[in-house]
Amino acid sequence: MNPCHVRRPLAAALCALVALTAAGCGDPGGPQSAAAAVPTTSGYPLTFDNCGTKVTFQRPPQRVLILNGTSVAEVESFIMLGLDKSVLANAQSYGVSDDPSMIGRIKALPTGGLTMNKNFDVPAEQVLKLKPDLVVSTWSGGFDAKNGFATREQLAAAGITSLVNPVNCAMGKPEATEEEKRAYRNQSINSSLEFIALLGRVFDVEDRALDLIGKLRARVEAVRARVAGRPAKKVLIAYPGMAMMNANGLPAVMTGGIYDDVIKAAGGVNAFAGQSSDTTRTLNTEQLATAQVDVLVVGQFTPDERPEAEAAKLFAAYPHWAASKSRTYAVVSDGVYLGPLNAVAVEKLSKVVHPGD
Predict the structure, then answer these.
(1) In 10 A of CB 313, how many CB atoms?
(2) Residue 50: φ, ψ to 5°
(3) Which partner for 271 in 151, 189, 216, 234 could form a disulfide, CB atoms 3.0-4.6 Å apart?
(4) Distance (Å, whole) CA 346 – CA 220
(5) pLDDT tens, per residue, the chain with 357 residues
């Protein structure tokens, strides 16, 4: 059973978020480079293939609708690139962030008075009524008519361009190509940078995008250099506030994709590395109790959660963990997801995985 079939509304929304980043880990310096997702032509009109759909930009978009998709990767990328004024309406939010300033900056964006349907995104009629010149979705499923969303064909007929974060082309696209499936499976920190590069090209701010990518990459590489040669400690990422995603009521344990890549960059290895993306739903108490955990990472999902108290509960429940004996833990929120804050999470984790090295 797919965890996304859980019927409770919040669980379904959470499931979509986790599915976006629960694929296999990729090498951020490998062939899945930012250039792979970015059109190489220059000037306007700019035409390229996006998840099998031909898109054309006559000029930089000025009225952008960012769909929800239970993601913050796209809206945070817009903000960090200084593209705030191009946002007509934003449906993405999280409430906590590894960059505290991000919370207020996202809240400051217009919402266009939009409301979500039962599938946690903006229904077709509202999108078409708003008349944006670009609609951005974190996944192909954001344009699925079966969920009440406007299709890419409907938008094009109305003169509206659509854009999917390229690393998630395969998600919600039954006819995805092998290349798209591979990109989805191999998500890494570099996948976050690819989207920044794509926005830089679409909005004609390439120099700004390259500068941001360079700074973010440099922060990650500085950590990699600091922890190089150190023993890789076993790291467990657990979100107690997402326990509704687990069939046994346990904290949602994250493995694969960007989760593994962030941990690796910080000098660790995921305690459940090599497990399938279904681990989040199927993990049981015995598996958690027998896991080797040197460092606990508590994921914060909502502002009212108390990560310190949640860490204490987990230490008490699993006293045999090395992390429980040493009381070693870190707290993250959105920095381990697809998005521009991976460098922040890598820095946070490295200080606990290899303190003082």
Answers:
(1) 14
(2) -130, 105
(3) 234
(4) 7
(5) 233 333 233 444 444 444 443 433 344 343 344 445 678 766 899 999 999 999 999 999 999 999 999 999 999 999 999 999 999 999 999 999 999 999 999 999 999 999 999 999 999 999 999 999 999 999 999 999 999 999 999 999 999 999 999 999 999 999 999 999 999 988 999 999 999 999 999 999 999 999 999 999 999 999 999 999 999 999 999 999 999 999 999 999 999 999 999 999 999 999 999 887 789 999 999 999 999 999 999 999 999 999 999 999 999 999 999 999 999 999 999 999 999 999 999 999 999 999 986
DSSP state for residue 151 in the 8-state scheme: P
Cβ neighbours, 10 Å, residue 67: 29
Same fold across 15-223 and 230-353: yes
167 sits in which H/E element: none
**For the chain, what are the domain ranges?**
15-223, 230-353
CA distance 127 to 114: 8
Distance, in Å, from the CA atom of 153 to the CA atom of 243, rounded to the nearest integer, reads 38
CATH for 230-353 is: 3.40.50.1980
Neighbours of 340 (CB within 10 A): 26
Q: What pTM was estimated for this model as a whole?
A: 0.90
Pair type for strands 46-50 and 53-57 = antiparallel
- Using the 8-state DSSP alphabet, how is residue 340 labeled? T
The CATH code of the domain at 15-223 is 3.40.50.1980
Q: Where are the beta strands (DSSP E) in the chain?
A: 46-50, 53-57, 64-66, 87-90, 134-137, 161-164, 233-239, 252-254, 268-270, 295-299, 329-332
| Identity of the residue numbered 276 | S
